[in-house]
Amino acid sequence: MSRIPVTILTGFLGAGKTTLLNRILGENHGLRIAVIENEFGEVGIDHELVINAEEELFEMNNGCICCTVRGDLIRILGNLMKRRDKFDHILIETTGLADPGPVVQTFCVDEELREQTVVNGVVTVVDAHHFSRHVGETHEAEEQVAFADVILLNKCDLATPEELAVTEQRIRSINALAVIHRTTRAEIEIKKVLEVGGFNLDRATELNPHFLDAQGHHHHHHSDISSVGIEAEGECDGKKLNDWISKLVRDQGQDIFRMKGVFAVKGQADRVVFQGVHMLIDAASGGPWAGRPRKNSLVFIGRKLDREALTSGFRACLA
Amino acid sequence: MKSPGSITAGDCISHLKWNPEGTRLLITPVTGALLVVDETATLLEELPGHGMGNGSSDWFQGSPATCGFDGKIHCGSREWKPGRGMIEHVRTNADGSLLAAAQGKVLHIFDGAASEEKSLRELPAVVADFAWNPKSSYEIATVGAGGALLWRLGEKEPFARFDWGGASLQVRWSNDGRWLATADQTASVHVYDIPRDHPLNMEGFECKVRALGFSADGKRLATAGSPVVTVWPCASKTGPEGANPIQVDGSGSEVRALEFSPVTGQLATGDGEGTLLVVTFEKGQFRRKRARLGSGISALAWHPSKPLLAVGHESGSVMWLSLEG
Fold first, then answer.
1. Which single residue of A100, B65, B99, B160 has CA 20 to 30 Å from A3?
2. What burial class does residue A28 get, using C-beta atoms within 10 Å of its C-beta: 0-12 exposed, 13-18 middle, 19+ buried?
3. pLDDT tens-digit profile of B222-243?
C-alpha cells in the first residue's frame, strides 16, 4: 500500500498561508487534497475538502517536549484513512503561533500514521517585510523556519531589495537546508510546494555545495538557532555511530529540531540514513550509493548547537 | 449463527447504534449518507452525511442525532452548527433528556429545546472523548491531554479529576457508575475507581488499545487492539487491581470493535480480517464461537433486548446475526 503524502504548512500570522491554501485548493492540478486547518482566523476557508479542528497538543510521556504530539491529527487522519476514496495528498495548516515540532513528531510516533502516511515536507510562509520583527517578538517564527524544507519568502512586493537580502540571509543562517522561493501573493507553482520530497540532504548540498563545509557556514546570525553541517571521508563504525547519536539526542534532543545524516557504515554496502526530530530518531537503508562518493554527510538544525563538539563527536565514530 | 438480513452503506462502517426500543438501527459510515433501518434490515430513511467525515451518532428524543467534520449536528429535521470545528461524537445522557457534543475546548450540552444553557465552555484541554454517567444524567466525564475530568452540570469546576502525564483517546463509564476507563495514545489503559478515588494504570498491551467496553453489569472491562482481547474483572472490592485478566485469543488480526450484550452478557469482538468471536464467560473461564465473515469488521452493536448482533464491515456492509439458541 502506498503511503499518502502529507505537507505541513506553517507560517507566522499574516504571512500568507491562507492565500497559498486558497491557491492550492483553487488550482486545477488534478489532485484530491484534504486540508486540515487549525487556523481559526477571521478569514476562514469554507471548502468541501477542508476540516477545521482545534489544535490538541498532548504529551505521550510525562513532561517530555519531544514526545508532544497532536491528538486531533491522529484521530482525523485515522478517519480519513478508512475512507474508500482515498486522497492523493493531505495538507495540514498549523496556527500562526504553532511550533511545528509536535506536528512532525505525530507522524513519527503514531504507528498507524507511520504506516499509512509520509511527511512530504514542511512549507513555511514568511512575511518578507515583517520577518525581522516576528523573530524579535516570538520564538515560534524562528522555529517555523528551522523546521522548513521549503520557505516561501512572501510579500516580496512590500519589501525593499535590501530588506529582502537581509531577511533571506537571516533565514539562511537559521536553516541552511531549506529551498527558498521569493513570492508575491503566494504565487508559486504548486508542485514546488507539494512535491518537496522530504528533508533532503542531497538537495541541500546541490543547492549549496559548501553547505557541509564549516568554512562556508554563515556566522552572522543573531539567533541561537542555526544549522551545522558535517562531512567526512571514510567509513563509520556502526555501533559507535549509534551510541553517539543516541547519547546526543538523549542529552540535547530538546534543542535539536531536525537532524539528517547519510552514512557509509563499515560492513554495509548501501547508504545508511538517519533522520530525527528532537529525540525521535529513525534509521533506514538509503539504497545503493549508485556511483556517488562513499562518504558521510550529517546536518543538524537546532538551538545552541556546538559545531566543534558535534564535529569531534562524529569524527570519533569513524572506523 | 443465522443471518436474518443485511444492508450496504456507501463507505466503511464506523458506528452502529440501536434506538432504546430496539426497533431501529442507525448506521454511520465514515463518509456519505447515514442509514436508518429496522430489525429486518429494511431501509427506513437515509440521512445526509457530514462532508469529509461522519462522527459517531446516537438517538435523541426519538430522532437520530448525527455529527461530523463539517461541525454540524443533525437531529431529526433540526440542524445546529455551534462553531467552526469538527464534531466527532454526539451522545445522549441516561434519561434521554440531554445531548452532548464536543467541539474543541467546548462541550455543548443541548436539551430538547436546543438550549445550550448547560454547556461546558473554556475547558482546560481539547475534548478527545466524553462519556455520560449511566447512573446520573447530570454527570459527564471528558478526556483529552492529561487525564480525565468529571463534571456535574451547572458547576464550574469538575467534581473529580484524574491527572496523569499522557493522553486519553477514548473513555467509557461503567453502567453501575463505579468505573471510568480510558484507552490511551500509549499502549495503556487507565481505570478509575470513582467511589474510592483510586486510579489504576494497566500497561503491557502489544499496541494502542483501539476498543474498550464494560459489560452491562459493570463487572467486566474488555480492552483490545492486538489480536488478543484482555478482559479485566471489575466486580471485587479492588476491581482489576492485582487480578489476572482473561486473555481471549482466536482473532486473526488486530481487534477493532467489541461490545458486550446487554441481554446475554456475551462479548462480541471483530478484527480487521473479518473474524467475529462471540465469547461466553462462565466462572472465570470462557468459551467462544468463531465465524469468518466477508471483510474486516469495523463496528458492532448488540440489540438492547434480543440476542441479535449488527456487524459493520470496512466494505460498507452491515449484517445481522441471530445468536438465539
1. A100
2. exposed
3. 999 899 999 999 999 999 998 8
Q: What is the mean pLDDT of residues A267-288?
A: 88
Q: How many C-beta atoms lie closer than 10 Å to residue B207's C-beta? A: 13
A214 SS3 class: helix
Q: Is-contact B277 B251, C-beta < 8 A?
A: yes
Q: Give the Å distances, CA to CA, from B33 to A21, B28, B74.
A: 28, 8, 12
A185: left (phi over 0), alpha (psi -120 to 50) or beta: left
- Using CA atoms, how far residue A264 sits from A292, A300, B208, in Å, is 11, 18, 36
Q: Which of A34, A48, A51 sits opposite B86 (nearest CB)?
A: A51
Cβ within 8 Å, pair B85-A54: yes
Q: Concatenated DSSP letters for A96-149?
A: TT--HHHHHHHHHH-HHHHHHEEEEEEEEEEETTTHHHHHHH-SHHHHHHHH-S
Quote the pLDDT of residue A214. Answer: 46
DSSP B96-141: SS-EEEEETTEEEEE-TT---TT-B-S-SS--SEEEEETTEEEEEE
Take residue A265 and report the three cell numbers written for it. 557504515
The Cα A312–Cα A279 span in angstroms is 21
Total residue length of chain B: 325
pLDDT at B88: 96
Q: What single DSSP character describes residue A3?
A: P
Reference B298, options A81, A174, A222; nearest CA is A81
What are the two backbone dihedrals, phi and then psi, of residue B226, each rounded to the nearest 5 degrees? -80, -175
Q: Quick check: helix, strand or coil at residue A14?
A: coil
* Angle, alpha carbons B30-B32-B37 (nearest 5°): 90
Report chain A residues touching chain B, CB-CB < 8 A: 34, 40, 44, 48-63, 69, 71-72, 74-76, 79-80, 82-85, 110-112
| Residues B255-284 pLDDT 10s | 999 999 999 999 999 999 999 999 999 877
DSSP state of B240: T
Chain A: residue nearest B89 by CA? A75
d(C-alpha B282, C-alpha A192), whole Å: 63
Q: What are the residues whose beta carbons fall under 8 Å from the beta carbon of A182, sequence distance 6 or more?
A: A128, A153, A156, A164, A168
Beta bridge partners of B289: B278
CB atoms B144 and A82 under 8 Å: no
Complex ipTM, two decimals? 0.89
- B310 DSSP β-pair partners: B301, B320
Is there a contact between A83 and B104 if contact means CB atoms under 8 Å apart? no
Q: Which of A44, A55, A71 sits opposite B84 (nearest CB)?
A: A44
The pTM is what? 0.88
Residues whose CB falls within 8 Å of the CB of residue B219, separated by 6 or more in sequence, listed in order: B233, B234, B235
- For A76, the 3-state DSSP assignment is helix
Sort strands A117-127 and A4-11 into parallel, antiparallel or unpaired: parallel
Q: Are strands A89-93 and A68-70 parallel, antiparallel or unpaired?
A: unpaired
The CA radius of gyration of chain A, in Å to the nearest whole number, is 19
Q: What is the pLDDT of residues A77-129, one digit of tens each?
A: 999 999 988 899 999 999 887 888 889 889 888 888 989 999 889 999 999 98
Burial pattern B95-127, b for ≥16 Cβ within 10 A else e, equals eeebbbbbbbbbbbbbeeeeeeebbbeebebbb
